Structures are given as C-alpha cells and as structure tokens.
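hiii so my PI (J.) wants the whole complex modelled not just the main chain, which honestly fair. so below is everything: two entries, each one labled with what it is. i double checked the lines twice but i was tired so who knows lol
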Amino acid sequence: MLEFWFFIEVVLNGMFAGTMYSLIALGFVLIFKASGVFNFAQGFMVLFAALCFVGFLEMGVPLILALVIAAAIMVAWAFAVERFVLRHLVNQEPIILFMATIGIAFFLEGFGELLWGADVHPLDIGIPDGAWFVGPDGVMMVQQFDVAAAVIAGGLVAVLALFFTYTRIGRALRAVADDHQAALSVGIPLNQIWIIVWAVAGLVALVAGIIWGSRLGVQFSLSILALKALPVLILGGFTSVPGAIVGGLIIGVGEKVAEIYLGPYIGGGIEEWFAYVVAMLFLLYRPQGLFGDKIIERV
Amino acid sequence: MAAVQGFEPETVSDEAELPDREVGEVVLKLENIELGFGGVKAINDVSFEVRKGEIRAIIGPNGAGKSSMLNCINGFYKPQKGTITFAGKTMSAMDPHFAASNGIARTFQNIALFRGMSTLDNLMTGRVLKMNRGFFWQALRWGPAQREEIEHRAFVETVIDFLEIQSIRRTPVGRLPYGLQKRVELGRALAMQPSILLLDEPMAGMNVEEKQDMSRFILDVNEEFGTTIVLIEHDMGVVMDISDRVVVLDYGRKIADGTPDEVRRNQNVIDAYLGVPHED
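here's the output for the full assembly
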C-alpha cells in the first residue's frame, strides 16, 4: 500500500513539473502558430519579463502595480518587435524569421542585463511554501507551491485554449502562418495579428517567469531552462495549445517515473535526458507530434 | 530591344475605345505608375483605367511588368511614382488591407493557398473581413456569433456549388491536383464577394478542358455577380475570346490599349511578340 502511495506521489510531482514545462511551451506555440517560426527569444522573454517584475518590486513598487507595469512592458515589447523587425520581414522564408528571433534574443538578454544587472534576484510573491500530508497517516507529501503553480498554469492554459480554439482568430492565425501574401490578400491584418500574438506570448512569459523565478530565483539561467520546452513541443505538436499541455504532462511524469523506477537499474540522471529521447522517438514515428497539423507535401 | 526604342509614345491610344457591351463608370484608375527594383524599371509610366463590370486583360511578354502591375493594384508593391484612384480615394500606393476591405480580391500566379487547411477552411478565410462579432461572442460560440458563422458557411457553400468543388470540401488543399488548387484559390477570392477580381494567370499550366472550365467560371462570375475582372493571361486565344479590353505591356511600358481586335492589329504589339527585323 505504501508503494502505491509513493507511486502516486511520483506521478503527481511529475505532473506539477509538467505544468511548468507546459507554461513555457505555450509561449512558443503561440508564436509558432502565427508565423510558422520557432521563437528562439521566448526563453529570454521569460527572463526579461521576470527581471522587470522583480526589478520594480525591489524598487518598492507594490506587487499588483509591478505586475501591471511588467505586463505593459511586455505588450510594448510586442509593438516594438512588430514595428522594427517583423514588419520588414513579411513574406520572407521561415528561416529568416528564425534568424531574426535569435537576434531579438541576444538583444533582449543584453538589454535586460543593462537595465537590471546580472545578479540573481530572489523572488517571493507570497505563494505558500509549506506541504500537505495526505493519504492514510499522511504518507504522501504535496508541496503547496506546486499546487498553486499548477492551478495558475492550468487556468492560463484553459483561457488561451478557449481563445484560440473557438475564435476566428484561430483560423486567421493558421492562415498567417501558412502564407503571408495569401493572408494579406483576403484582408487578414497581418501586423495586428503579430502584435496580439507577441503580446500574449509576452504575458505568458511573464507568468512563467514569475513562477519559475519564485522557485529558482530570477537569474540568467532561466532563459536556458526554457529550452526544456523543446521536447514538449515535439511531443505535443508545435501548433497545438492542448498539445503543449499534454506534452508537458507526459514529459514531466515520464521523467520522474523513469528516474525513480528505472534509475536503480540503469543508473541515475535519467531525468536529464529522458525528455530528449522521447522527443527523438516521436520525430521518427510521428514528426507532427500528438496534436500538430499534419504537413502535406505533394511530390 | 529595337521594339522598345523604336516606338513613339504618341502612337499609343490613351483612351481605349469602349467595347460594344454595356460597361459602367471607371472604378479603378492608375496614372503614371512607375516601379523599380534597384536599377530595374519594372513599370515605366503606365496609365490605364478599369470600368465597372468589364473583363480587362493585361498581356505582354515575360518580364513585361504584368504581375508587378497587379501587385501595385492590391498593395503588395508601392510604386515610386504615380497615383491609384479607387473607392473615392487617390493614393500614391494601395494598402493591402484597404484593398481587401474595399472589395479587391485576387489569385496568384504561383498558387498561394493555405496548404494545411481544407478547401472549406480556405474559403472561410475569405469571409474574415465580413465577420463583425467580437472575440467574446466568438469565444462562447453562442448567440449572434454562431448565427453569423452559419450565414458565412452558407455563403461559402454557394461558392462551392458554383465552382463544382463539393467533393473536395474536406480535403486539405495541399493534396489536390494543380488544376483544382487553382479553382479553390478562385473560390477563396469569390468568398470575399469582391467588386474587383484580380486573376494572375488563372489558366497557367492547365490542359484544354481545365482552361475551358476556368474560362466559363470567369465569364459566369462576371455576368452573374457583375464582378469586374482584371486578368493576366498568356493564352492569347482565351484572352481575345473573353476580355472586353486589353492593355499590352512590354518592358514595363504600355504599348497598346483597346479592344481585342484593335490590339491584334496594333503594329507595336505584333513587334513586341514577334520581334522586328534588325537593319544593319
């Protein structure tokens, strides 16, 4: 019986970790949906948003106000990216847009450091940090922080999934990602769509940055951590919001279960590479991911 | 090059003779359009106008600037000089969104469909500008927004019937043969209920039967919906058959403008297509 509860605990922990991955992956999905491009800068947006937030907090700005200012900065950032970068790259190859996002990433990293310095900033926004003990005799421990983070991530994901699945913006997004010229010719306002998507991706980055920052401290390694979203995306499909969630959960649970139950037999450290192996298998057998759009090529 | 240097601008009839058929007022006017890419002049001082309800063809040898002209009309290219008059506004360049929202739809020389989407979804994108309900209603899929979606779907179905593409409604367009893709692209433009339809080589790469089908569709659209059509086409037989008036471009200049018969007899046109003997 004890083993059963232990298993549940492992799975739960995996799911909590998974929602954190989903949160990061979501930002990538949004921009991929609207431009067909992997936004290399997403991780740096997470970092930058968190830096702004923590920076204002440290200046003594109240929590809510700091949140609003940081959100406003991310929206302004979306306008700037559209105005100075994307607008000039309409109808270019995806690889060129991708290169542009690399440029944006490095700009953002340098700009963030210039504004806020390179120190690690501890962040505490009052998410409870205790633990609950559940099950018979309290055999299972659940971190309150994990639950809070999962609830926030889940809520955000649900809102976004509804927004993009059930509004006409979903169809417009696919159109923009598919063919810029054709989208313009039917009157889809390309520039507005890009601003909306980058702004939403910026807000998602802010939430992800705050949650990850509360756990690890706001520091530059956050931007690298974001790359953990890559296997999640390959698993879930680059174009699917629900895919990002399911992908995140599978990776999170898979990692933990593999570490605990396979670890003793083939050596530890499975957590580090498990996600990438799963992603590789998916690339072999289902390159569009679980929920992604199928790519059709007529030869 | 002799053909270009040889011709005198004054021999060009600026005001082309109107066809016998009833056509309306000028709906689109291009004046002294100039467009260059670096050192290359793609369009050099070209003026012409399009009248309501006519089928207006733009012809000319490869590289004459025909597609560039179409791209200026719907705002993909911004001419360096000249003006475009449309929808009561005289502009130095068109904006693609303004063009689309005021009833200019187009197809492309190299088909530009949303390849991952079904035929139906492709056509539905043509309705984007006609949808008014806000995201909130859309998100709930409820009330007015749902009624609206149904209305648009109904209109798209009439376009599907019109073009006889019922059987490929659910097929992702990337999987369709070339001729059908061209037809879906026309369908997406028609779904916009355009007042002016720009067709860039609608029959390129088609076999004889497909060309006949496409010609019939173009004529039907023009007659049944009163849509003004501007088309680029290389098949002279088709152009002369279906168009009311023809503009001829060569090396970015306008060398003739008139009814198919006038154009056929024009010496500049004959020279441009067949070349002129060089004198030593």
